[in-house]
């Protein structure tokens, strides 16, 4: 089955076995990383950092297709990397927007046009930061399982410290660590849910959310269900993150 181009001959199979599609976000400028190129394209052991994220999804047995949201000037590099590393599940690039949520919107629109035209099946979409290259097989599998069970999944890790609240001088209350969870990616939803949510965001004029998770929260799409997160599934953001990841890759 060619997951990149559904046809009338394979729609029936898809209906009974939903596709699992990774939508990887690689459109940011990455200025905090202080590199000469956006951090997702920094070369680590001869390949772009993004390639490690793509590889994690390409190797996963439950993933059927991969799309990368990136700026047009980097699209050729992404496609060439996918070809050189023989990523069999890579289906193409989507033009990024000026914001993370705008890029997700563009990706969802592309997937809607490609996979929902027949209205006969509803793929599960895993929206993942392209600069979280250490996402594990277990994290991906649990995101899919929780979404299938509950209708959505947000990868998360429980907090290890209690947080104080108050002003810059004094604390006036606390939040127990048992109540705090750090949201990671993937953020996993059926495609039809994402299409519906972005239409709702348009109606309400919500365009500047930080992420898909925060968009769902702003639109009061509760509950959101936690799937497995891991400390190592961190978002590479600063120069020291790139240094640490490069050291890890060199010994793996």
Brief account:
This protein has 252 residues and is α/β, with parallel strands linked by helices.
Explain what this protein looks like in three dimensions.
There is one protein chain. The protein starts with 10 loop residues before the first helix and ends with a helix. By secondary structure, the protein is α/β, with parallel strands linked by helices. The longest helix is centred in the middle third of the chain and has 16 residues, at 100-115. The strands form 3 sheets. A 7-stranded mixed sheet has the order 5-4-1-6-10-7-11, with helices on both faces. It has a two-stranded antiparallel ribbon with strand order 2-3. The chain has one domain (11-246): Spore Coat Polysaccharide Biosynthesis Protein SpsA, Chain A (Alpha-Beta Complex), CATH 3.90.550.10. It is globular and about 60 Å long. The mean pLDDT is 92. 37% of the residues lie in helices and 23% in strands. The chain contains 8 helices and 11 strands. It has helices at 11-16, 49-58, 72-84, 100-115, 137-150, 191-204, 212-218, 239-251, and strands spanning 20-26, 43-44, 47-48, 65-70, 90-95, 124-129, 153-158, 163-166, 171-175, 181-190, 226-228.
Strand line-up of the largest beta sheet: 5-4-1-6-10-7-11
Largest sheet: 7 strands, mixed
CATH topology: Spore Coat Polysaccharide Biosynthesis Protein SpsA, Chain A
User: What portion of residues is helical?
Assistant: 25-40%
The dominant shape is globular
Secondary-structure arrangement, i.e. CATH architecture: Alpha-Beta Complex
Beta-strand content bin: 15-25%
Report the end-to-end length measured between terminal Cα atoms.
Answer: 33 Å
Number of strands: 11
Report the total helices.
8
Q: What is the number of independent domains?
A: 1
Per CATH, the superfamily is Spore Coat Polysaccharide Biosynthesis Protein SpsA, Chain A
Structural class of the helices, strands and pairings?
alpha/beta
Average predicted local confidence, pLDDT: 92
User: What is the name of the CATH class?
Assistant: Alpha Beta
Low-confidence spans:
none
* Radius of gyration, whole Å: 18 Å
């Amino acid at each position: 089955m060619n997951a990149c181009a559904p046809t009338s001959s394979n729609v029936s199979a898809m209906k009974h076995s939903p596709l699992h599609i990774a939508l990887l976000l690689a459109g940011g400028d990455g200025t905090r990383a202080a590199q000469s190129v956006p951090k997702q394209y920094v070369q680590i052991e001869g390949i772009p950092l993004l390639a490690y994220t793509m590889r994690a999804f390409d190797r996963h047995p439950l993933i059927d297709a991969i799309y990368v949201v990136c700026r047009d000037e980097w699209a050729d590099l992404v496609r060439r990397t996918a070809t050189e590393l023989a990523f069999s599940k890579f289906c193409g690039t989507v033009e990024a927007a000026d914001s993370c949520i705008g890029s997700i919107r563009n990706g969802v629109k592309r997937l809607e046009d490609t996979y929902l035209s027949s209205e006969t099946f509803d793929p599960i979409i895993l929206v993942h930061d392209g600069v979280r290259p250490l996402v594990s097989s277990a994290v991906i599998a649990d995101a899919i399982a929780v979404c299938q069970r509950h209708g959505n999944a947000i990868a998360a890790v429980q907090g290890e410290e209690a947080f104080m609240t108050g002003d810059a001088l004094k604390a006036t209350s606390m939040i127990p660590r048992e109540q705090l969870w750090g949201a990671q990616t993937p953020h996993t939803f059926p495609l039809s849910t994402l299409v519906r949510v972005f239409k709702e965001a348009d109606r309400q004029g919500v365009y500047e959310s930080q992420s898909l998770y925060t968009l769902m929260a702003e639109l009061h799409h509760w509950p959101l269900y936690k799937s497995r997160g891991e400390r190592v599934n961190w978002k590479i953001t600063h120069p020291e993150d790139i240094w640490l990841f490069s050291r890890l890759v060199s010994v793996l």
